[in-house]
Amino acid sequence: MMKNSAYTAIPVDEKGYVAYSKEDAETWQHLFNWQQPLAQEHACASYVEGMKTLGLSEDGPAQLPEVNRVLFAETGWRLEPVDALINFKRFFGLLADKRFPAATFMRRPDQLDYLPEPDLFHEVMGHCPILCNPEFATFTHWIGKLGVQCSHEQQVALARIYWFTIEFGLIREAGTTKIFGGGILSSPKEISHSLDVSVVNHHPFDIDTILRTRYRIDIPQPNYFVMESTEQLLAIQDKKLLSRIDNAISDLKSAVI
Ligand SMILES: [Fe+2]
């Protein structure tokens, strides 16, 4: 989903493994030990549970075949190594096939706290624990299946739902706002940023508003949508969503004119 990347994909060997450098291993370890205390405190229960299931540790970078063994057994998902640059057609096509696109490179040491494009730490530590949860896994699969039927214009709108849920979603749990978006959870700075209502906006979760909310990928997010429960994710999975997407597209067009 990226237009330009400062990184190039690292090829996997015939067994799906990548020969990471010592610097990559140090970056993983540093990030893991910075991110985990914050994530354990602020992530939703499904994430914390998924971390236990996956058995991820500071010893890394994680290798896709090892993550996939657990993930596939839990929910039938697996990570698919891709270039940093993939288009919407490929992106939704992979999700429809329960394959989660995963860039295999590790961020550089000078980009530890914020990276505007997904690296291996983001894909594994941000997304995989949640993908162990059947409800979130089904939702991600549903987005993929809908996305492959959409025009490019509809895909752009559908990507807003993906962005404000799977990447940057918040959820209320026992009276506290928790994080389930992988874009937040893989960035230690964004974890604190996303919950600081003195600098960001927490909006009630409303699908028609989300469909009309543009986002930028290259800045810490100013807007987050807070679900009251996972019931709201189930409620989106409705055949009427395509007509709501079309209404949002025409509203945004008339607003520009
Ligand atoms: Fe992501």
From TrEMBL:
Its cofactor is Fe(2+). Fe cation binds at H122, H127, E167. SUPFAM superfamilies: Aromatic aminoacid monoxygenases, catalytic and oligomerization domains. GO terms for molecular function: iron ion binding; phenylalanine 4-monooxygenase activity. Keywords: Iron, Metal-binding, Monooxygenase, Oxidoreductase. Pfam families: Biopterin_H. It comes from the Bacteria. Residues 1-257 form the Biopterin-dependent aromatic amino acid hydroxylase family profile domain. NCBIfam families: PRK11913.1-2. Belongs to the biopterin-dependent aromatic amino acid hydroxylase family. This is Phenylalanine 4-hydroxylase.
